[in-house]
Amino acid sequence: MNKALSEQQFVQYYRQILLPEVGEQGQQTLMSQHIMIVGIGGLGTHVAQQLAAAGIGHLHLVDDDKVDMSNLPRQILFNASSVGREKVECAAKEISKLNPDVTVRTYSEKFSEQFAQSLISRHSDVKQACQHNKLMVLDCSDNMPTRQLINAWCARQLIPLVSASVTAFSGQLMVVDAQRMSEAGCYHCVFSAKETLQTCSDMGVLGPMVSVIASMQALTAIRHVLTIGEKDNTLHIFDGLRLIWQSIVRHRDPQCTVCQHWQISPQEPLLSETNSFAQEAYS
Fold it and tell me: Do residues 173 and 164 touch, judged by C-beta distance below 8 A?
């Protein structure tokens, strides 16, 4: 049972509570939610700030990197005094200033196979959140091996995943959820492990591009937590030069080695023809 809002919390989140899709019960749901953000860079810092401001009660920040001067134009939780310090610690400090009610757990580690395998057994709060369907993962990482590893772990644990990435003037976003949208498949159904997406360090990126995709990622996460809006079984692609969004319906690949154990009802299509189209559209 969700804890009742205090008077201060009711005032703080009043504009959100006014929304019929949120209300007081929805705000309580947000405050009981755990969200793990993997990658505290351009996307991760924006997402963490917005989720903390919205009242997500528990944030888990995962990143083994330290702040570099080149991070400052787009990684908004850092400043010149942050350079050389661990990203997760700097981000946690700023989040606590923004909203002291948010519980922040930091993991100054790389999201490796070993880290993923021991995550639930090592941390009781993560285990409990999983057991009560209160954990979501946001992939804000910047390389394909990590993306595939995050996707595989979430697929195995049946944890909802919102994956996003930005390169130059292109961005992409998708939701993976075995329990609500098994017919849409997983990240591996769209992007194979052999693919390599170019990164910001390769192509460069503007800060506002990161902000746009991060805002969409945060909004998508909140929509999913509150179960509002239409089911999102698409790959969203944003062209920042033309200011155009393209959405491509995703279908599970029945040959996918990552999500083949998911239970698919007979009414759900098992089509994979659009997957190659999705890859071509974003490449």
Answer: yes
